[in-house]
Amino acid sequence: MPETPQRELTFAEAVREALAEEMRRDPRVVILGEDVAEAGTPFKVLSGLVEEFGRARVIDTPISEAGFTGVAVGAAMTGMRPVADIMFGDFLTLTMDQIVNQAAKIHYMSGGKLKVPMVLRTTMGAARRSAAQHSQSLHVWLSHVPGLKVVLPSTPYDAKGLLKTAIRDDNPVVFIEDKMMFRMKGPVPSDDYTIPFGVADVKRVGTDVTIVATSSMVQTALGAARMLEDAGISAEVIDPRTISPLDRGTIIASVKKTSRAVVVDEGHLQYGVTAEIASMIADEAFYHLDAPVKRLGAMDVPVPFSPPLEDATVPTEEALVDVVRGLFKKT
Amino acid sequence: MTTETRADRTDEAIDAARGLEFYSQMVHIRAFEDVVNDLYKRAAMPGLAHLYSGQEAVAVGVCQALHRDDYITSTHRGHGHCLAKGADPKLMFAELLGKEIGYCGGRGGSMHIADQETGNLGANAIVGGSTGIATGAALSAKSLGNHRVAVCFFGEGALGQGLLYEVMNLAALWTLPVIYVCENNLYNEYTHFRETTAGEILARPAAFGIRAERVDGQDVRAVYAAASALVARAREGGGPAFLECDTYRYHGHHVGDIDRAYYRSKDEEHEWMTTRDPIGRFGEWLCEQGFAAPVTLDDIRSQAATAIEAAAQFALDAPYPVAGDVWRHVYA
Fold first, then answer.
1. Cβ contact (<8 Å) for A146 and B114?
2. Cβ contacts of residue B135 below 8 Å, gap of 6+?
3. Would you call A320 an interface residue with chain B, using a CB distance cutoff of 8 Å?
4. How far is B173 from chain A, CA to nearest CA, in Å?
5. pTM, whole model, 2 decimals?
6. What chain A residue is nearest to B165 in terms of C-alpha separation?
7. Could you give the number of structural domains in chain B?
8. What per-residue confidence (pLDDT) applies to B12?
9. Which domains does chain A possess?
């Protein structure tokens, strides 16, 4: 049978399709957030949903991140499956008590009796000239808290499958989309599929070095891998897809095969996701390593506004290539 | 969905049987807290507890206006709410002592008791932290059309928290069935509320268009009457309300807060305990009405003390969780 050509969607369309399909499947799924209804968010990710599902299920809120996140927690505890929309990841700071002290701990504190099946959808990523309060990648904060799951999709395909899993999960899930990826196109099946949490995806097979990359850094890593190929270095790119839970096995198996590892993530370098993964590699694959584990992240400065300054803070393909090549230098 | 108690609970009149039930509940709460204090002093209880003694009329008056499947959210001073909503003292003591059979398997303790069987969505150790949860439960009740009402208990200390105002705004905008019950026991921990609270309390909810009332929180009949009316209104789609209950906590902020002279006088404590005690006042009313003889009330108190002692002993004898189970319940 001839294969049906794969349909392509943008990242934003894949997110919207996942939400629409889940809302059709389950009447308990509602969206809460600022300008989510007619406006469809400033990124237009939700355009069209209010027309199909109405204002009782696509609920515009005041500018009250803590308030509507708290309402989502309570609604989740009592039979709904809310998706709270936090427009910019920077505004997660305003929801912290409700997410960290309430949502993350309620199942545990209640001895397993109460559940908080909610999704907090938000964004991350610099490079939009949006300055320090609209550009941060704060996912590691949430990954530090037991009880939360943290999802970083890197392709339209992963976005749809992972978001459907997030909505069906009985735990609070933080789902973080890089703003720079909304227009990225990729194949997305029109059928109902889910992607399990805690299962990394090998985005490129290689033999000489393992690059563990998250979110938009996956594309950076794939670009770097193409450049490295020209230099005779075969890079394997691993996308954890969820950083909590983290698929340790796939990462460790890859490093044991390649003997070199670089970890790249757009959060700040200090105490970052990269530090956790690098330390795990050092711990579990030390005797297989031919070089130190290297890390790339956002510079440890607030994200600046001025374009040349902002661009200097984010890991690039060239910087990643340099780091990888450094692992092969004879000293 | 309905519950069998729905029809009879809308009647605000208190007959003899109902009156004795109110009295018994308040007495059980008082006895429970006396035993908690004793367990603390004997070093038989891990950690601390925040006692509800003195405030019993608020929990009982409000929870008697609710159905079993209505929701409450509670506070760090939450034992009274939990008992008034129908929890079993044995399993509460077990939770306070960190035992496996406790309401939360010992994972929560005094400040986090939750009992979904009675609609208790949990005590909360973040002041004002549960206001979002109660409002969300009300959103869910409205969305699912199950005619439930949510009551959010909080102390006047929570009036300083921004979340309360965010969710009151939402509740008013969306006409949610939630009652914000402010238990004003005068002290934000160790500071009189007049030092922390500008303006008039009721003007705050009123600014959102929320029906706001104030009631003598030491008079269980008054609390019950006010709560019944507001709950019925909310259940019928009339929207949120705010009920300030003037009350007093007999003990310190927590069981270890013994030297209190620097923030409140012994005279003030004595005055509240002797002239406005909710149990004493209601007992007198029951006798005046001919609903009970003093000896009946004596019996209720002594039976409650015995039952609560037995419940505590049950918990003391119960096993702790095994350490290997510490990983359970992190994720559902």
1. no
2. A67, A70, A71, A74, B150, B152, B167, B168, B170, B171, B176, B178
3. no
4. 9
5. 0.95
6. A67
7. 1
8. 59
9. 9-189 (3.40.50.970), 201-326 (3.40.50.920)
